[in-house]
C-alpha cells in the first residue's frame, strides 16, 4: 500500500478534492425522520456512505456523534469506516486526539494500527499539548501508511486566542505547527502524509506559509458560512492541496440518496471550478 499522501493525491485527482463529513447531529436525525438512537445513527451513516462513498475522495466521520451513544455507537462507527473504505473513499477519522506521548501512543493504536477495529486512513490530532507529544502518532502513521491532520488554524472564531499567540521567537503558535508539518513532509512526493487543518472561514491567510508539503483540510464550507468561491482568497497558491470539508451543507439534503449525491456533486463541481481557476 502506498503512503497516505500519495493515496490522497490520487483520490483528489480522480474524484476531486471534496471531503464529506458524516456528522449525525440529533437535529439532522430528526430532520431525516429518524429516532435519536443507535438504529437512527446506523441508518443515517449507512445512507451517507451509500450516497457518496463511491464518488468523493474523503469521508470524515465525526467520532463525537457516535461516541454519544456509547459502545453501540462506536460499533456503528466501526461498521461505517469499513463500509466507506470498502466503497473506495479514504476515511479521515475526526476524533481530534491529543495527549501526553504515552497516552497518544494508545490513541494512535486505536485508529492507525492495521487490524484495529477503527483503523482509518487518517486521523485528526491536536498539537496543543506540544507538537512533540504527537510523535507516537507520527511514527505509527508512517509505519502503517496512514496520515494525520494536525489542528493548525481551526475554523471556529475562538481558535485564535491559542493559535495566534506569539512565542518568544516572534513566530505564532499556528505558524510553528505548520513549520513542524513541513519538516515531517520533507521529501514526500507528490503530497506529504501529514496535513494541517486550516479553516475555510478565516479570510486571507497570506501571512502564513501554507507550503508545508501536505494537504490542507478546510472545514467551514456550508453551515459555517464559507463557500467554494472563498477558497482562492483564503489559500492562494496552496489551493491545489486543499481538501474542503462539507458536513451539514450536504447532510441537510438527506435522507434521499439521490438528493445527497446531487448536493455533494454540486459542491464538488464548484470546488473543481475554483481549483481549475
Ligand atoms: O477547525 C475545525 C476542525 C474540524 N471541524 C469539524 O468539521 C466538521 C464541520 O461540519 P459542518 O457541518 O460542515 O460545519 C465538524 O465535524 C467539525 O467538528 C471544524 O468545523 N473546524
UniProtKB/TrEMBL annotation:
InterPro entries assigned = Aldolase_TIM (IPR013785), OMPdecase_AS (IPR018089), OMPdecase_type-2 (IPR011995), OMPdeCOase_dom (IPR001754), RibuloseP-bd_barrel (IPR011060)
A Pfam family reported for this protein in Swiss-Prot or TrEMBL: OMPdecase
Sorted keywords for this record are:
Decarboxylase, Lyase, Pyrimidine biosynthesis
- UniProt keyword annotation of Lyase present: yes
What residue stretches are annotated with the Orotidine 5'-phosphate decarboxylase domain?
17-263
Residues forming the catalytic site: 96
Q: Name one GO biological process term.
A: 'de novo' pyrimidine nucleobase biosynthetic process
Per the record, the pathway is: Pyrimidine metabolism; UMP biosynthesis via de novo pathway; UMP from orotate: step 2/2
Q: List the Gene Ontology MF annotations in alphabetical order.
A: orotidine-5'-phosphate decarboxylase activity
Q: Give the reactions, separated by semicolons, that this protein catalyses.
A: orotidine 5'-phosphate + H(+) = UMP + CO2
Instruction: Identify the SMART domains for this entry.
Output: OMPdecase (SM00934)
EC number assigned by the record: 4.1.1.23
- Alphabetized HAMAP family for the sequence: OMPdecase_type2
NCBIfam families, per database record: pyrF_sub2
What family does the Swiss-Prot or TrEMBL record give for this protein? Belongs to the OMP decarboxylase family. Type 2 subfamily.
Protein name according to UniProt: Orotidine 5'-phosphate decarboxylase
Write down the species: Streptomyces roseirectus
Amino acid at each position: 500500500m502506498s503512503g497516505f499522501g500519495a493515496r490522497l493525491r490520487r483520490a483528489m485527482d480522480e474524484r476531486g478534492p471534496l471531503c464529506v463529513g458524516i456528522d449525525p447531529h440529533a437535529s439532522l436525525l430528526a430532520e431525516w425522520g429518524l429516532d435519536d438512537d443507535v438504529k437512527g445513527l446506523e441508518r443515517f451513516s449507512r445512507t451517507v456512505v451509500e450516497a457518496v462513498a463511491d464518488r468523493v475522495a474523503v469521508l470524515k466521520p465525526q467520532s463525537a456523534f457516535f461516541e454519544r451513544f456509547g459502545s453501540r455507537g462506536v460499533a456503528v462507527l466501526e461498521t461505517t469506516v469499513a463500509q466507506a473504505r470498502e466503497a473506495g473513499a479514504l476515511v479521515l477519522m475526526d476524533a481530534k486526539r491529543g495527549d501526553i506521548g504515552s497516552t497518544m501512543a494508545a490513541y494512535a493504536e486505536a485508529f492507525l494500527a492495521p487490524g484495529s477495529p477503527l483503523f482509518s486512513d487518517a486521523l485528526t490530532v491536536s498539537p496543543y499539548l506540544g507538537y512533540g507529544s504527537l510523535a507516537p502518532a507520527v511514527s505509527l502513521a508512517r509505519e502503517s501508511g496512514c496520515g494525520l491532520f494536525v489542528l493548525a488554524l481551526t475554523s471556529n472564531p475562538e481558535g485564535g486566542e491559542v493559535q495566534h499567540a506569539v512565542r518568544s521567537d516572534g513566530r505564532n503558535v499556528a505558524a510553528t505547527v505548520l513549520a513542524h508539518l513541513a519538516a515531517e513532509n520533507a521529501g514526500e512526493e507528490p503530497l506529504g502524509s501529514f496535513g494541517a487543518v486550516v479553516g475555510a472561514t478565516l479570510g486571507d491567510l497570506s501571512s502564513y506559509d501554507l507550503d508545508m508539503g501536505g494537504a490542507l483540510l478546510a472545514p467551514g464550507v456550508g453551515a459555517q458560512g464559507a463557500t467554494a468561491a472563498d477558497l482562492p482568497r483564503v489559500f492562494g497558491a496552496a489551493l491545489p492541496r486543499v481538501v474542503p470539508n462539507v458536513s451539514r451543507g450536504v447532510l441537510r439534503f438527506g435522507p434521499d440518496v439521490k438528493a445527497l449525491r446531487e448536493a455533494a456533486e454540486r459542491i464538488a463541481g464548484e470546488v473543481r471550478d475554483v481549483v481549475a481557476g
